Amino acid sequence: MTGDVQQPRRRRLSSWTTRRWLRAGVAASLVVLTMLGVAGALVLGRTQSISNNLTDVRSPSLSNAFRLETALVNQETGIRGYGLTGMPEFLAPYRQGLADQKAQSASLEELLHDDQARLKDLGAVQDAVVRWQEKVARPIAAAPPGSPSSTATERAADGKAAFDQIRVALDSQQERLRADRVQARADLQSVTTLRNWVFSAIALLMIVLAALVFEGLRRGINRPLERLGADARIIAAGDFDHPITPTGPADLRRLSSEIDFMRRRLVRELAFTEEARLRLDAQAADLQRSNAELEQFAYVASHDLQEPLRKVSSFTQLLQRRYGGHLDERADQYIDFAVDGANRMQTLISDLLNFSRVGRVHNAHESIDLDTVLEETLSALSVVVEESGATMTHDPLPRLVADPSQMVMLWQNLIGNAVKFRRPGEAPRIHVTAAEEAGLWRFTVTDNGIGIPPEYAEKIFVIFQRLHTKDTYAGSGIGLAMCKKIVEFHGGTITIDLDYRNGTRIIFTLAPEPPQIPGPAVIPEATRMNVEEG
Question: What value does the mean pLDDT take over residues 179-197?
């Protein structure tokens, strides 16, 4: 003895699947139902056989025996009356009795053809009738009519004795036929009782079988599925750590195990996703902080550059006014370069400042009519439009919730570019369309200008990217980049229609209402006051 404690044996689970259990249950049910059907059929067959024997043999046989007795009595009455009176009328019952005797005897022989004992009784009756007819009936019937028969008087005692033997044989036959009918009725009653018990047992067994099938389905299928559904609902409610316990047949346990495996995998995926989300949130926070710092830097830097640029521009302009024409030609050229560079630098810084303010300073959304905004834009650009001879047309424009200042800057850049990049010797023609599409408003600005090569369709929306030199077309290269920033800030996109060849067609979309996005970085009030005072 080592003192080891014996561990309880783990209950071995059945390897039978639901289909196998169902097949076994159906097979067992069919076997039981077949046995019950065979038993019921046997009892019904026995009941029908006894009933047929009673109704088709025993009762008709007894009735025919009574009719045979009546036929014989009619013969005896007719022969006795004819023998005593000699009147021919008495032979009619006798002859009818002979015909009835023959018919009833034939009927009895047909009914009792399988019953040798009753056929023997019938034979005894027929033998007694033959003796009576040979000794009494036929001789008397053969006597001439008109006077009483001497044979009847002479053989009266023998005739009575012979017919008494017929009566005895008939009584014996009828008694046995009556006993057979009573026995048949008793057998029918017995087998009927047996039939009722058998069918009651069949009904009871069918009820028990149905109850067993129902209970088997409930325990083997419904209960495991209900438990699986309850576990699934608990998990769907958010308790992903809740385990799923396999129960029921092998395939349902396998299904539960697979669902539990899926749950565990989902838990791992959710943990990984949550970790990734936390890292992404941290990166987004870092990126937002970096963008805020970058915007603040661009805002402050653009303001800080204003004062030295104003000084450079002011002093170079003073040099140009005071010493222009007093120095040599090269000196005047240098002064012109300095003044032009300072002016272009001021324009560039101003555009950069406006670009940094999009979505940060200009962020006052309200319901505006783009028709009115476009008219204000055309009024601001009236000088260049008039000088270029441009023709401006547009479809009815919608009302949107947007920032008015940004919409003005958007139209100014798009219309200004269409006028600026016109074909030499040809007046600009500009047309603006608007149509609602997939929940957004789709706008097009089409001109007949010099166009944009397809390979530069993306490059032109990058800040400071230019397709021409400053001597050919003035500008800072910020205009379309600012348009892209304004459009995206209002929940849309902007692109070039590469299929349009007769100029330039810019396509952009705007949302009826701007999307909800995190607020832009806000520069501290003290910093803004300092840089704006500078």
Answer: 89
